[in-house]
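Quick one, T. Sequence first:
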Amino acid sequence: MKQTSRRWLLLAALVMATGGAWAAEGDWVAQIKKAHGAVTIERGNQHHEGVVGVRLKENDVIVTRGEASVGMIFNDNSMLSLGPNTEVVLQRYSYDPTTYLGAFDALVRRGSVVVTTGNIASQSAEAMRIMTPEAELRGGKASSYAVSVEGR
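Structure tokens:
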């Protein structure tokens, strides 16, 4: 009987540990896959170098300076590439990998980006928005598009 109780306690501990790891992983929305030149991630009052492997969170601001560029992949397989002198805010991101439902909102303050939609947009084009100071684009099933904000 003692051995059975120990097994249940061990199983419960493993389930709780796995749940904790899953929650921590849920904080990250994307990861940098390619970076060239001066790329900065602004998170609150902190600035981090944007290098390959850096994980991004909701509300991060990604900035490229000079001829820099950066490419990232999101948890739903959406991709976002920033060209030179670009600033993008990851305003909102949520994703359920079981249902593929979620929301993706990014604001392009300046510069140029290329977007390839992923699972979120394949479920609902209204769920993915790329905004600029002048316009708003909505994602669609298996689409790619370029956005440029000049003079900012």
